[in-house]
Queue: 3 jobs
Job 1
Amino acid sequence: MPPSKGTGDSPAGSYDAIVVGAGVAGLYALRRLRDTLGLKVKVLEAGDGVGGTWYWNRYPGCRCDVESLEYSFSFDDALQQEWSWPERYGNQPEILDYVNHVADRFDLRRDIQFNTRVTAARYDRAGGRWRLDTAGGESFSAPICIMATGNLSVPRVPEFKGLESFQGRWYHTGMWPQGGVDFTGLRVAVIGTGSSGVQSIPIIARQAKQLTVFQRTANFILPAQNGPMDRARETRHKAEYTERRRAAYDTPFGIAGYPPPTRSALDVPAAERNAIYERKWAEGGSISFLYSFTDLLTNQAANDTASEFVRDKIRAIVKDPATAELLCPNDHPIGTKRLVLDTGYFETYNRANVTLVNARTAPIQEITPTGLRTTEAEYAFDAIVFATGFDAMTGALKEIDLRGADGLTLAEEWRDGPHTMLGIMCAGFPNLFMITGPGSPGVKSQMILSCEQHVDWIVGCLRHMRAHDIATVEPTRAAQEAWTRHVGDIAQMTLYPKANSWYMGANIPGKPRVFMPYVGGVDRYKRNCDEIAAAGYPGFVMTPRAEPMPRPLVAAAGND
Ligand code: FAD
Ligand code: NAP
């Protein structure tokens, strides 16, 4: 296992570790493996720049829905003290600038190869190495492989008949042109009303001559209440940064500063309950709202009180009663799909140039040369925007021909849904690590925190292996199945499985309906990970190296 440091005389394409993906997870993995462990690392990235999500999703209005004082790296105090965010929530260009700054500041770029899509990864047990092949015909090998390929990195355009015949321009929010798009004077369709649709629709509406939104499922949407950064608050926050970052690990969503609720929604008189929801609505943000009461995600009757509050807000904002009713979500409990934060979304439907079409009762049948046809009508458009989401959580991993020690692909292993240990490793795939894979709480948290936590745990595991002359690590099948069952059992104790969400794979026809994220909370999850490490990795098989490794030739540098 991890030799001390690349000696420089290894064959071309041969490394101590390969990381796939240069989003926040891949960058942090590179930083730690190279600068803390002293490994020779290569990062392979399909795009021509760093940033992952923030590199690809350049659609108008794209911004994070976690406050930027939280949604940022914690590993370097000087970085977090020096960086200043202009607004409460960073927008896509700002976050991309920030990630580029991090790449330069920590000299990460020199170990990243861009424009390199990994198409296959195969484990050779005899040689003890992963061999990765790329779309460009190159090969790379290393004993350790880290898949930092993202949960929301495979955009999905529904398989509508006739798309190739469309004579206008079409776009997907998750692969937006780098130069941007000007919709001025155009007749535009937006298909999809998840977070990406909700962020882009108000801005497209201001440009377009006519905007038609095709909504299949109405979503619960809360106001972001974005605005300029409160500098006094920023100063206070920065003074407490170290403690706040630590405290975040003791919370379910990985964000400190929200006092946990203590009462059931049903134990509070209606007037008081509504006053609490009003206050949270005015504050903005989803965690604050979900933290109104203890049981919003576990008790349907409690949840109904919050759901109805939001529906009443929609009815109050949207002037046309029929449109307002169509915008009212009624097929899932609030919070069981990712809550969407908006800026002026519902108000957009009061504009004369915006129309909402019910794509549930009149599904889109086909794209035509001049627009699209639903079961009820035909529409003419100059441009179509697909805000139709991603093959989430498993998509990027399944796209790679990823074969473990026995030659089975991950896609075959996961035919009935993903099986993982902690969302980090899979039985039969030695030394292959995932960052925030299915079975991790990653997507239910402030994701940069989860990426850092996963990488730190992996670094601890690699150190343990180095200290004990261990060549490979992989989970036992028994431990993996126990964890996978536990992930499902916890989900069943909540209302989450009631929604047809991407957490359930429900947005992809034919995908197994399995609730994939761990919803027991970042706090419990991290404790569990730490206990496993402290106990010497029970549930994992560690295979000793045939020949003991020489002690480190070069002292590992960098932070811990
Ligand atoms: P990604 O950023 O997805 O990076 C993965 C990288 O791997 C990509 O660059 C991709 O090109 C590369 N890759 C994938 N497959 C291959 C391959 N086969 N070969 C080579 N390269 C490959 N999370 C939050 O916590 N808060 C938010 O507010 C928030 N907002 C979001 C907004 C949008 C529009 C989206 C889509 C997601 C958002 N998320 C948010 C989730 C976001 O994905 C994570 O916060 C975080 O950026 C994930 O980083 P990552 O490095 O794990 O993955
Ligand atoms: P999404 O939440 O999966 O939404 C996709 C939308 O497209 C849904 O409204 C879906 O309807 C619709 N759709 C899909 N196929 C359709 C079809 N054939 N006909 C009509 N409508 C169709 O995707 P997303 O909005 O890109 O967001 C994905 C995730 O990325 C979010 O949940 C969030 O985690 C992250 N994100 C975050 C932010 C942020 O605010 N920071 C912004 C963007 C994305 P159904 O609901 O009926 O399937």
Job 2
Amino acid sequence: MNHQFPDHLVKSVERRVTGRACSNVALAKYWGKRDVSLNLPYTGSLSVTLDGLETTATVEIESGKTSRTILNGVLTSGPEADRIRGFLDLVRLAAGSRSVASAELASNFPVAAGIASSASTFAALAVAAAAAYGVSLTATQLSILARRGSGSAARSIFGGYTEWLPGEASDGTDSFAVRLAEPEHWRLGIAVVITNERPKSVGSRSGMAHAAKTSPFFPAWLTSHEDDLADIRRGILDRNLTLVGETAEHNCLKMHAVSLTSRPALLYWKPATLAVIETVYELRAGGIEAYFTIDAGPQVKVLCANEQIGIVAAALANAPGVKRVLRSGPGNDAHVVEAA
Ligand code: PMV
């Protein structure tokens, strides 16, 4: 990051930049931090960026103004706004600016309900804030910056298939995402099944800290993770749905086993979540390859061949308790949409 930004450019900045980023779904998950304040993970993780599930972030810098945070049209204060302001301050300090920024965020999918809205939020904010403050960052540096907002956001800087390398350094300089494959490499079908539109009660931040501290299965989660990463990485490069799907399901169930065996237990599923899992099993029994994965919430993402997304989405929509099914696939890189 450029700490030497020329003074004449930062003293009276008046800029408004809009950035956009897609959410992502982890196939090998991030669950547990070796450093809480820097969002440094114990393990690597691997994801697909989700086309059409987007957050748009507008960052505005005006000298002498106070900072405002607007989330989906609502002026917000409290911990959520503080977290966003703290993130914008990282960029402000890197730019050597005294002008605070305001942010307006809009997501086109249910936020804070287990579709990694924090991933698209902080990836979009990273690209918009860096451009607004005139800090020129590489994609790797943007990934490091986005990671400071939310770990999974490090992966949403890149479209297609992405791997977040955990790194070893205590300052996090080697903990960033890299692109594994472009979206065009493999047009996987991804059905996002919404079972509950309300915000979840335990966010991933506190959920993973609690699980790491209290589940007796956490060490097994860590030691078995590398094999899953290797299989999913290979499966993506070979476009092998069976290998990717089976391994992603297994990795997801291990993450939830760790959560379930925390004290007190963390149960992210609703009855409809289980109904979707059963529907996926029925689809497979009927010869349609479909595989589920679930993050820290009740929603389910189902992977299938792109040509079968219509049949798969229709079957999932019929599962008891399902509210709606969004059709997605590998999405694009986080990018600046407009700068003024
Ligand atoms: O980035 P966070 O702090 O919202 O954590 C995301 C955790 C999971 O979504 C459950 C897994 C992952 O790798 O995205």
Job 3
Amino acid sequence: MDSKTKVLIVEDELKLARFVELELKHEGYEVAIANDGRSALDIFEEFKPNIVLLDLMLPGLSGIEVCRRIRKSSDVPIIMITAKGEVMAKVMGLDNGADDYITKPFAIEEVLARMRVALKHKRTSEEQGESSRLSVRDLTLDLGKRTVKLGENSIELTKREFDLLAYLIKNKNIVISREQILNKVWGYDYFGETNVVDVYVRYLRTKIDDKYNEKFIHTIRGVGYYVKDDEE
Ligand code: CA
């Protein structure tokens, strides 16, 4: 028999946490709740959840800090819960390794849908196997280990930066639109905020192009981005 998918809810509003817990249990998930950032990390270690719903504004450690610490040792899907208007916080959350975010107030159906997407995305990337590699010129990505090397230099990327770079390299020499990138890398249609793609391309350029004085990621203004392989 399949074991239940385990969800850790990190939320300091007790009523909201309880409500989400009941709904998730009703859907067949096993649930644990943490009411602050520190206990979230402890419970995470013990409970070993398959997915985390992480409120941003928490007493003690912030949601962003919790996210960053979990990411040091785990690629568990993390969905950030943010209040309306916290745009910078969303970008920071995504940059610190969150897979997605939901804005309060939310409908429970939306939470369930985002969870399914995040869990499916995780399975898909696991199925890509240990040994598959992507490369362009002397830049190499190991999709199993999720490591990046330029020549002999290791490059540290966040989860989302890695996924974006992998997608661009899989489609090297093809111009990809922001919408395509959002759809494939973020996993569903974003409404508005397509500039999150530009933000992430900038992060990649800072870490790779600028740092090593090589130009991998090219912009076609008004169209999108592509990674160029000079050998072709
Ligand atoms: Ca809160």
